């Protein structure tokens, strides 16, 4: 099983793996089955002038968005540099 480790340097960064949302600063996702997985990392752009649902001015600003093929017993690290 894959054990991706995600280190997040900003509080407002959201990570989605196959539609499951995570927003902790550091996380480990265990027992992710081998195969194709969708990984999205984004933050919210709160000052773009567009009013979304419920009048909030937010929009997803993608930092990373891809499909990954995970092999059996593969370990993957994703590190987001907080100084970008």
Describe what this molecule looks like in 3D:
The protein is an all-beta fold and 84 residues long. It has one domain (5-79). It has strands at residues 5-7, 14-17, 20-22, 26-28, 35-44, 60-70, 77-79. The protein is elongated. The N and C termini lie far apart (31 Å). The model has no long low-confidence stretch (mean pLDDT 76).
Task: Give a quick set of tags describing it.
mainly beta, 44% strand, 84 residues, 4-stranded antiparallel beta sheet, 3-stranded mixed beta sheet
Let me know the number of strands.
Answer: 7
Please state roughly what percent of the residues sit in beta strands, choosing from under 5%, 5-15%, 15-25%, 25-35%, 35-45% or over 45%: 35-45%
Structural domain count: 1
Structural class: mainly beta
Subunit arrangement of the protein = single chain
Rg (CA only) = 14 Å
**Strand order across the largest sheet:** 3-2-5-6
